[in-house]
Structure formats: C-alpha cells, structure tokens
Specification:
This protein is of the alpha/beta class and about 160 residues long. The chain has one domain: 2,3-Dihydroxybiphenyl 1,2-Dioxygenase, domain 1, CATH 3.10.180.10. The protein contains three helices and nine strands. The chain has a nine-stranded mixed beta sheet. It starts with 6 loop residues before the first helix and ends with a strand.
Length: about 160
C-alpha cells in the first residue's frame, strides 16, 4: 500500500533491482531484544522545492551548504550540514519530514507493527537501501530507511 506521496519514488527506484525483503531473522531483528533502540540516527530532513535547480540556488549557492549528491531520477539532491552527519535533502516529490536511519527497514516495520504502530507504506527498495513509512500509535508518520546498498557517491548526478 502506498500513501500517494512516495509513489513517484517507488516507480523511479532502480529498475530490475531485487525486490525481496531483507531477512528479519538477522541481527537487526534482535536489536530491540538486545536493548538497542531501532531508530539509530537522523539520516536526513527532506525539504520540498519546486525544482532542484531552484532549491540548489538557494540552499547551496546562497546559504553555502555543499552538494553531496544529486539524483534527478528520484527528484532529490543531498546537501551537507556542517555539524551533523545528517543531510538536508531537497526533494521535488516528498513532504517536509525527517528520515530516520535504522539497521533494517524490514525489521523496523515488523517491530513497529508488533509494538502497536502501523505500516503506512510497506518496505521497498531505494537506490541506497530500503525504506518504509510507518506511523506510531499517536498518528505520527516516521520515514525509516536503511543504507543496505551504501551511500550515494559524492556529487553523483544520475
């Protein structure tokens, strides 16, 4: 099920990529029972812009944030934040929201479900790993992603 806002990203992800879910029997599924929280860090905050070039003129050129990567196929560009490993991600397709890093999007989805939350958008492949959108029992949407395929190379412009 998709919530409509991520449908463009879902269709623009790597064509032909393996769509099988990550195993939930691995170490990531044991994080909660091992006493480790499932949300590891803030990965990024998505900021909607009318087009990437306009967004880059403001955030990169005028405000000075360095461009780390750009992916026109998914309508996003990642910019650096000087005091954080998190990225400011300009996007033409998503809303303004934080993106939280998890060890496994699939395991996190199951943990959220078991804990009383719900899955808004089932886990799916993205160029850098897998992503799931969940909601806590209070209705807050959480975008959870893993970097199982690695980060974008510096200044990638695909």
């Amino acid at each position: 099920m998709t919530d409509g806002r991520l449908s463009d990203v879902v269709s623009a992800t790597l064509p032909g990529a393996a769509a099988g879910p990550n195993s939930v029997d691995g170490p990531a599924s044991r994080l909660k029972t091992a006493g480790m929280p499932i949300i590891r860090a803030l990965d990024a905050v998505t900021v909607p812009v009318p087009d990437l070039d306009a967004g880059l003129r403001f955030y990169r050129d005028a405000l000075g944030h360095p461009l780390f990567w750009r992916n026109d196929a998914v309508g996003q560009a990642g910019l650096g934040l000087p005091d954080s490993d998190a990225e400011l991600v300009l996007t033409t397709r998503q809303t303004y929201e934080p993106n939280w890093l998890v060890a496994s999007a699939d395991a996190a989805a199951e943990t959220i479900r078991t804990a009383g939350g719900r899955v808004v958008t089932e886990p799916f492949d993205i160029p850098v790993g897998r992503l799931v959108v969940v909601a806590d029992p209070f209705g807050n949407r959480l975008v959870l992603l893993d970097l199982s395929k690695g980060r974008y190379p510096a200044a990638e412009t695909t």
